[in-house]
Amino acid sequence: MSTLAAPPVEARREARAARSERIRLLVRSPLVVFGAIVVAFWIFCALFPGVVCPYNPIFDNNFVPSQPPSWAHPFGTDTNGRDVFSRVLAGSRAILQISVAATLIGTVLGTSLGLLTGYLRGVVDDVASRMIDAILSLPLIITAIFIVTAVGNSGRGVVTLIIGLIFTPVIARTVRAGVLAESELDYVQAARLRGERSHYLMFSEILPNVMSLVVVEFTVRLGYAIFAIATLGFLGFGVAPPSPDWAAQIYQYYTLIDPYWWMTLFPALAIASLVVAVNLVADGIREAYER
Amino acid sequence: MIRFVLKRLGLALITLFLLSVVVFAVSNILPGNVGRSVLGPFATQESVDALNDQLGTNRPLLTQYLDWAGGLLHGDLGMSLQRQVPAWDLLGPAIVRSAKLAVLAFILCIPLSILGGVIAALRYGKPTDKGITVAGISLAAMPDYVSGIILILIFGIWLGWLPVTAQWPEGAGPLTQIKYLLLPAMTLSVVLFGYIARITRAGVIDALDSDYTRTAYLKGLPSSVVIRKHVLRNALPPTIAVVAVQIGYLFGGLVAVEFLFNYQGVGLLILDAARFNDLPLLTAGILLIGTVYLVVTFLADLLYATLNPRIRLGGVE
Q: What is the pTM (predicted TM-score) of this model?
């Protein structure tokens, strides 16, 4: 019995060593660190808008409207006389909430579906793979617009759920490939010979071994989710005013870009900084795991 | 080669069929009551019933699907509810306009991004490589309209070189049209640059690392010949396949870019259809985009196979 118990302990120690090695690799890359700092900054703003915003982003509309950037208002004021700087700082909240929730939904559902289709194979797998191909032949934004229109509601919850559901097949496909590769390995065969049940095999044997794939997928998809939600917001399917939201601000003010450029440019730069930072981190994590 | 083509064609047709089923299901089952969802909560029950009658959405789903799919096979994409004209009359010209924009975007970005990818690979690990790679990741990650806004500000407003909308004056010649399309096309190229440069770089690095490249160097060929005849010829086919697949994803970007520049292409048409709850037009447009994507991917597969002798000569399935 003791000889049987030894490998898991060994394996666990190895896994821990691999994890600390990966973290060391991540911390050594200046780009990943830079990305992480930017993401942390926006998360902080999302959690504590009251601490970072010099003025109330929604109700403080008693300034001179449409003023260009100055010392008092580094990003200027908008047509309603609100401080754009405060609105930009407070604007990370909605997009972070929606994108993280949507990515979580997609990751949980996609991982389950990937485990099932990769493990069961056969007809379920064939049918699911073809369906996934069909859905993936449409760009994300267009699928999202289509479903939002068909459902007739573009509220926060609906958008979150739709993006999550669209991610599901994509993540499922990646996880499925990982599961297929793992199923060939001896430890799965051994567990099967021990007479373990399917759900034990899937969740306790295979899942921990495809977890790194899932982590990479999550970070990569998070970047896409921010991209998609920011785009939907700009197209008018997003957070309703007067809530501060970068994409909604751009949607509201982009036609006034000449001469009121500051109302559009600063929210746009904020979106760019968040999305690029998330992608730098995701790219670093992908490289660390693929090593 | 023929087997390869037939197999791919068969897969594409199956996928197209499934796409039509999915699209049909979304537009006919999700709304619950199609007439109600088009007309809104304040419409009278009679007008909702009348619209459902006109659209035929009160019949069994299977009959509806067969009817609709039969119409599609005859080239009948349905009627636009909002404008009361056949959907094709709107989609046809819009597709042509979007294609103009897309072609210009590809002409702008393909040479630049392949060059960027090759340079990055040849300078592998050096600052030039890092710079190109990070720029590529950043540009590809940004929503199209964000880069569009920055380009509008720089070239349209501060420098004043280019028009900020894509609506050229009536009867403008091709050169004027290109001038008006330049900013939106640049916006699309910015995103594509990231993808294409990244794939090119990976392909070239792989090829540089291979035994045949080492052999070519060892037998004394000058490096320009090795790179042109050995490295690029092996590295570019996968790049071409990726470029072709990006054409499909370009449609996703077209929606935001056409909206930003107010350009009446297929993206803006779909967006308007969604805004006005014009489900038949939206459904037709989406199916059209899916079809274009599948056709393009199929052609990309063929092109890839033709460029790759291992598939052309039937060695690999």
A: 0.86
